[in-house]
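Dear colleagues,

As part of the handover before I leave the project, I'm documenting each prediction I ran so the next person doesn't have to rerun anything. This entry is a single chain, and its sequence is reproduced below.
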Amino acid sequence: MTRTPMNEHCSAVILNKLPRKLGDPGKFLIPCEFPGMDECLALANLGASINLMPLSVWEELSLPELNPTCMTLELADLSVSKPIGI
């Protein structure tokens, strides 16, 4: 049997000397600025989620034009939604 030298990474794995993985931060706050507000903290959630908004609300808020999409979403209550755009 021949001996094969190991590089630093392999020996670290074998000797169990790899750094510990950090945990998932889940939700955290992002500081942000809006005119007329003293302090604003935005909640960020790294979970897989999608926010749906009725088209009438989107139009009432005068938000930018939507990009067409061809996706179908099955919601938690098993209903199906076909978004106009993203």
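The longest strand covers residues 27-32. The CA atoms of residues 3 and 11 lie 14 Å apart.

All the best with the project,
I.
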